[in-house]
Amino acid sequence: MSEVASYDFAVSFTEEQETTVEEVVAACRQRGLTVLHGPGQTHQWWAGKDEGDLPEAQVRFFLPFVSTADEFSAAMLRAVKAGDQHVLPVLIDDVAVPVGLLHPHVQYLRGTESQPHSIAEALATRVEQAEAAGWDLARLAAVVTQAREIEPPAAAPADFSRYAEQDAAMRYLGEQFAAAVPALARRGLVGTVHRGDSRIALRIERAGDTLYALDIQRGGIGGDETVNFVVGRHDAGSACTNGWARPVYDTGTSTAKLELHDRSVFGRDGTEPLTYTPEELFTALWQRIDAVLAATIG
User: How many Cα atoms within 13 Å fall on the side-chain side of residue 24?
Assistant: First the structure.
């Protein structure tokens, strides 16, 4: 019986990505990485093969290059979300991936068609990390077929409403901030919360000086169904944002959550949105406020 070949990667791509993928594969091989790559092994090719017809090989990662959310790419992304560590999607350029297909705790590999060597360098790093963690290689045919068999999540129910969830989020955050600010008096601070229909205004002062300001507004950059966050004092009506959250339906937990984009409201940037329950979002916001106050007043 012949020995089964082993590779660092096997790649899948669309016809439009073929030139880019060839350049990435060449750059990987220059770095000593082993790659299973065939010019006709597109997403459609991998999707149409039975398990027994797929290459008999062991791989560390299966790499679907994703520039559109086609059916095969969506299946691979679902596999990652389900915990398959051997599927490593490469998100190309500014591809928009539905948040329901992304795992909040997975750092996805992103790259651009114009920088194949940067993608290869990132892939080399992933291989090093996998080797250091002691990850075993997996049978390629099993990885692909098992990923294809993961069922799409159920759709949001007919009675899910982004605007009703926006109302609930605004109401909950306003109530929680109003309940939290009296405790600031023990630190020699004064907290006030104004709760209007379309805006929550939180201000924290000491001796009349504003130490922290946060406005939570209905609607904004992400659409009129979103909740917009603005840190710091600003002119009323100005187009500012430090993050915005859209109500989404989490099919995994069958609950509504808030999909937060641009997390500079927490003092850091993020390329991928994260989802929070209203309770989790308030906790994260209050922890950020506490950290800012500690740095300001000691």
Answer: 32
